[in-house]
Amino acid sequence: MPVFARICLLPLIAVGACGLLLFGQQPRSGPWVMEPSGTSAGLRGIHAVGGGAAWASGTGGTVLRTEDGGYMWQRCAMPAGAEKLDFRGIWAWDADTAIIMSSGTGDQSRIYKTTDGCSHWKLLFTNPDKDGFWDAMVFRDRRHGYLAGDAVRGRIVFLTTDDGGETWTGSTAVGLEAGDGATGVFAASNSALLAGRQEPMLFGTVGGYIYAVETVGNISFPMKPGTRVQMHEQWTQYATPLRASSDSSGIFSVGYHAGDVAGHSYTLVAVGGDYKKPDETDRTAAWSFDRKHWTAATKPPHGFRSAVAWDADVRAWITAGTNGSDISYDDGKTWIPLDNGNWNALSLPWVVGPHGQIAKLDKSKLPKK
After folding, report:
1. What is the mean pLDDT of residues 287-297?
2. Which residues contact 153 (CB under 8 A, 6 or more apart)?
3. How far is CA 268 from CA 23, 105, 138, 212, 236, in A?
């Protein structure tokens, strides 16, 4: 009889220990339950679709998918020629359809799409600028998507698609000029860019600035009745308390939720800091009710943070970074530590990090308000 079997035939007082072995109880990091990913790749892309489906992505052309709430993560077929690509952004609509974005200089930034559950991939677009570097990609719906990248020739790159990613067009809008250290967007978690159905369109940058867009019109007087006003997009740069001079610091992630505070329609939370100084708490979080005016957290997260997201079930913000995670029940004003793990990106209930780490949030283990 094998040793393991003999051990588990001990009296009932040992059943608990044998149960852990037999059923493979997964390790935890605070409220995060670790899941076997089957890869050692560094993971920075994660997107929860709902209904138990989620997608993750990372280094070495890695793409993962689950259809059963994370019980099993499937290693997807690798896109042709993607062996050395770092897929830092992923966006999905269901268990079959997803778009991935690699981050890298020049043609190492690419976009692929699958419609058959990642059995096959189609290359949609390759960065045409040898000096470019793509950082974040989000979609408002199945057709309309947005991509932000580092500055090229003095302007932050902002691309749009209205055909599901098949074609992309660069924005020529006023206000995308790089300046005051805002040389680009961080490609840490694919969450520095915000552009959902309800959210204001904006992104955070190196140096700690928010770029937000609005549609404005040129009106000249006198105007004949019935004259059509010409409308165009215009970006405006706003300073935040996360502002810093180092090219390793600034805003790494921006989150949104419909406002609970009287007189405010939404709340925004920005997190970041200096990724080279992960244990420093200074300038790691701020909040805003209008995207223009930002206030630093009075009790910030306990280190650099690269991702933030609102959890509607527990009505709280959760943020994660390379020295752990934190939670805020008061719209980003104060934060409570959750764990000291090493994380890169969030799409609740999942968090991902280096060495193939994927974990799922156990909400019963969260601290009380």
Report:
1. 96
2. 131
3. 42, 30, 17, 12, 17
Give me the half-sphere count of Cα atoms (radius 13 Å) on the Cβ side of residue 61: 13
Going by DSSP bridges, is the β-strand pair 209-218/230-239 parallel, antiparallel, or unpaired?
Answer: antiparallel
- In tens, the pLDDT along 44-68 reads 999 999 999 999 999 999 999 999 9
Closest among 140, 173, 139 to 156, alpha carbons compared: 173
Q: What percent of the chain has pLDDT over 90?
A: 81
| Residues in Cβ contact with 296 at an 8 Å cutoff, skipping those fewer than 6 apart | 241, 242, 283, 285, 286
Q: Is residue 298 predicted with pLDDT exceeding 90?
A: yes
Identity of residue 148: A
Task: Name the amino acid, one letter, at 198.
Answer: Q
Q: Among 192, 191, 195, which Cα is nearest to 182's?
A: 192
Which pLDDT score is estimated for 262? 67
Give dist(CA 239, CA 298) in Å, integer. Answer: 18
Is pLDDT of 228 > 90? no
Task: Provide the CATH topology of domain 42-210+239-364.
Answer: Methylamine Dehydrogenase; Chain H (2.130.10)
192: nearest Cα among 336, 342, 305:
305
Which positions ≥6 away from 119 have C-beta within 8 Å?
Answer: 76, 77
Residue holding tokens 């004003």? 333
Q: How far is CA 292 from CA 17, 184, 251, 259, 309, in A?
A: 55, 19, 15, 16, 20
The Cβ of residue 110 has, within 10 Å, a number of other Cβ atoms equal to 21
Contact (CB, 8 A) for 33 and 358 = no
Task: Enter the pTM of the model.
Answer: 0.89
